[in-house]
Design brief:
- Chain A: Keywords: Mitochondrion, Ribonucleoprotein, Ribosomal protein.
- The complex is a heterodimer.
- Chain A is an alpha+beta fold.
- Chain A is built from 4 helices and 5 strands.
- In chain A, strand 3 and strand 4 form a beta hairpin.
- The relative contact order of chain A is 0.13.
- Chain B is globular and about 90 Å long.
- The chains are: A alpha+beta, B alpha+beta.
Chain lengths: 135, 293
């Protein structure tokens, strides 16, 4: 948890240090850099240090490549940096942090939605579609 | 059981490799530059030759011969809740600069929620992506497939293929071992031992042939080129590796040297006795005529 006492990093005036994703790449081709930056900076602006990268599109072998500099990550977390929610979820998937509760909740919601779509079949789907197109 | 890295074995293999300076420092394809000429005295020329021999020794250090690596299948966590959320797997690589590549953490989160350690092929690929090594490609070239190796071997380019293989694969990967064994088999089948003679692959080839007892062709080749010392060291190595065979016991009892050792070996162990006897006869006749004249 963030507390005003853990101001070991006096480098940022006002804001606090976050570890988040900075978006780069080209049109229809995103690429994220995992970055430690001042929270009040632009998303893609000047950062303190790059701690890794994430390629959201699967490669020829069907894998999404993620690189994490765990040693520097531990250093910034030890100095009192915060994590953004996507960063926490990614580290939960990696096994560095415990699995994020929202990941579990999202998975269960998705499963319930898929079950609802499969089970009733065609009839309630027509019934729910008509008022949708009427309004 | 004697290993490839034993001192005695290494010295014998190194002696057999030979030191042909003209072949080791053969011109490699580089940028076109006019040749440089230097004027030297006898002493300076000796000094330059000595330094060249030192550099050649460094170039002839043998690459390691290891057993095939065990496949990794270690599951770190199983989270059934994540099943069906993702479509592709995530490969997480630890990018800490100061850890050796063997100890790096590379884990894979599958779409069914299982968090497992990455297999050796995935490890090699990821390490090449993030820490590229010169001469190595992320996806191994098509050259190393079995059907294409045959074409290259017909062009007598075993040495180039083996150098590329050393640059591309780890010494204990199954691909490295497969390519090397194919190369050695092909050389042994056609008797092209001289292709590897002054290179760093010769020791590995001799070790392979000794372990499978296919040394006859090599022995004939050595006798035909009047390399009797190499032939004797080959047979001594054979005795070191297979001490329970008959010729080893006879050699130890009689403490035989040189041509006698070869004759004992030929009588007991070899398959192609006739050829080796012929070659030995030809060699002895040549020695007799040269000493007479």
């Amino acid at each position: 948890a963030f507390s005003a006492g853990s101001r070991l990093l006096k480098g940022c005036r006002g804001g606090h240090i976050v570890i988040r994703f900075a978006l780069g790449g080209c049109a229809n081709r995103p690429f994220f850099r995992i970055v430690a930056a001042n929270s009040r900076r632009a998303r893609d602006g000047k950062y303190l240090e790059q701690l890794g990268c994430l390629d959201p599109l699967p490669n020829a072998h069907g894998e999404k490549v993620v690189g994490l500099n765990l040693e520097r990550l531990r250093h910034w977390l030890g100095c009192g940096a915060q994590l953004s929610r996507p960063a926490e979820k990614l580290l939960g998937l990696a096994g560095f942090l415990p699995l994020h509760p929202m990941t579990v909740t999202g998975a269960e919601r998705l499963r319930r939605r898929r079950q609802r779509e499969q089970q009733p079949g065609a009839a309630p789907a027509d019934g729910s579609a008509e008022p949708g197109t009427g309004t | 059981k004697p290993a490839f890295t034993d001192e005695a074995v290494q010295t014998l293999l190194y002696k057999m490799t030979g030191l042909d300076l003209h072949k080791v420092f053969r011109p490699v394809k580089k940028d076109l530059r006019p040749p440089q000429y230097k004027l030297m005295t006898e002493a300076q020329l000796e000094e330059a030759t000595r330094k060249a021999i030192e550099e050649a020794k460094a170039k002839l250090i043998m690459p390691p011969v290891l057993n095939e690596r065990e496949p990794i299948d270690d599951v770190l966590a199983e989270d059934k809740v994540l099943e069906g959320t993702e479509t592709a797997k995530y490969v997480f690589t630890d990018l800490t600069y100061s850890i050796p590549h063997r100890e790096r953490f590379i884990v894979v989160r599958e779409p069914n929620g299982v968090l497992r350690k990455a297999s050796w092929e995935e490890r090699d690929r990821m390490i090449q992506i993030f820490f590229p090594k010169e001469g190595r490609r992320v996806i191994p070239p098509v050259l190393f497939k079995d059907e294409n190796l045959g074409t290259v071997f017909q062009q007598d380019r075993h040495e180039d293929v083996l150098n590329m293989c050393i640059a591309q694969f780890e010494p204990d990967s199954p691909d490295y071992i497969r390519v090397h064994h194919r190369a050695y088999e092909d050389i042994e089948k056609h008797g092209k031992y001289d292709l590897l003679r002054s290179t760093r692959h010769f020791g590995g080839m001799v070790w392979y042939l000794l372990n499978r007892k296919k040394t006859d062709g090599l022995l004939i080749d050595m006798i035909n080129r009047d390399l009797l010392d190499d032939a004797t060291s080959l047979i001594t190595l054979y005795h070191v590796l297979h001490p329970e065979c008959q010729s080893a016991k006879e050699a130890k009892e009689g403490k035989l040297q040189g041509v006698d050792l070869i004759k004992v070996f030929v009588k007991t162990e070899s398959q192609r006795e006739g050829y080796i006897q012929l070659a030995l006869q030809a060699y002895e006749e040549a020695m007799a005529t040269s000493s007479a004249s």
